[in-house]
Amino acid sequence: MLRSPKFLQSSQFLHPPIPPSHPPQLQNIPTLTPFPIIKQCCKFSRRELAIGSSSSLLLLLSIQNLEPFLQSRAQAEENIADTNINEGQEENSNATPNCTNKNPTRKAFLDISIDGEPVGRIIIGLYGDDAPAGAARFSKLVSGAAGISYRRKEFIKIMPNYVQHGGVRSYGVDVELAKSTGSDLAAESLIDEWQRSYEKCPGTKNLAGTVSIIVRNPLKPPPKLKVVARKGKLEIDQEEVGIDPNGTEFAITTKDSPELDASALVVGKVLGGMEVVERIGQVKTVSENTSSPYFRVAKLIGDKRAVVAERGFNRPYSKVAVTNCGLIE
Question: Per the database record, which ranges form the PPIase cyclophilin-type domain (predicted)?
């Protein structure tokens, strides 16, 4: 007897087909967008493509051209830095012998007396190589080659750190004697030499035992302007206030004296007789009176009596003079 088709259909629903033991492989889903989609989304004209390609090419060429320039610039900066370091090292190496390790080229002597009593001799070594103008000036004044000398000239100031000699006068017989031998007491060359030494050597120049020539007055005020009548016309003239040193006064330090660096040129050092210099420093002097209100008012209004009184400060009561001087060959 044949089965009915309805029964067959129902049996198929009652018994579903058994799935296979290996599951079917899934198809790989493409992640990239197909070319037609890109073409539809982003459309470029030939002109835009040409401009983009040319700009990219120019950018690459500029980078390639800049690379050697940047390398050469960096190399040049490194070379400049190396040269600056080498120059600084050379300056530091040359600063020590020129400023501290000076060698005397000539010797001079000064015989000193206090109130007519001889106290000893001071031997000075002169720096002819480091301060040629200053050493030549001191040598001429010691030996008398300038027509005048330090002989019978006195020390005019005794300070706690140094003693100062008055030198020769800028007027009278001293100037006439200097002119007779063709000597000039101007201090311009000494000032130039002081300027070079001041800029070249840092730190204190006037150390203990050094000999220096006074070449300038740092406390001197600038010239005052005044109106004068000349040939029926009013003209503006400059009036000098104070007197510049003539480059003959010298100082011998007993201690480090940085206060002299702004006015004195170091020309030598004491080689012997330092006890004589200390003996001079023990002479009693006129005490300063700058704290007095009368002196302050007189100095403020420009009273000449204040200038005269100031010159007398720290002046020795005793006569301290050079009895004899000369060069040691």
Answer: 109-327
Neighbouring C-beta atoms of residue 184, cutoff 10 Å:
13
Q: Do β-strands 250-253 and 162-165 pair in parallel, antiparallel, or remain unpaired?
A: antiparallel
CA distances from 198 to 89, 167, 212 (A): 20, 23, 13
- The stretch 7-23 carries a mean pLDDT of 46
Check: CB of residue 138 under 8 Å from CB of residue 326.
no
Query: What is the rounded distance in angstroms from the CA atom of residue 307 to the CA atom of residue 311?
Result: 6
Spatial distance between the Cα atoms of 37 and 35, rounded to a whole number of angstroms: 5
Burial of 271 (0-12, 13-18, 19+ CB in 10 A): middle
Average confidence score pLDDT of the chain: 76
Across 301-323, average pLDDT: 86
Within the chain, what is the greatest distance between any pair of CA atoms?
174
Half-sphere exposure of 184 toward its Cβ, with a 13 Å CA cutoff? Answer: 6
Question: CA-to-CA distance for 141 and 135, rounded, in angstroms?
Answer: 10
Nearest CA among 197, 175, 193 for reference residue 184 = 175
Whether residue 329 contacts residue 142, with contact meaning beta carbons closer than 8 Å, is answered with: no
| Cα distance between residue 114 and residue 318, in whole Å | 7
CA-CA distance, 266 to 211, in Å (whole number)? 6
Please identify which residue in the block is written with the tokens 């005269």.
Answer: 308
Q: Which of 265, 18, 233, 34 is nearest to 137 (CA)?
A: 265
Q: CA-CA distance, 326 to 111, in Å (whole number)? A: 9
User: What is the Cβ-side half-sphere exposure of residue 42, based on CA atoms within 13 angstroms?
Assistant: 6
DSSP characters over 288-328:
P-TT-HHHHHHHHHT-HHHHHHHHHTT-BSS-EEEEEEEEE
Adjacent-strand bridge partners of 236: 227
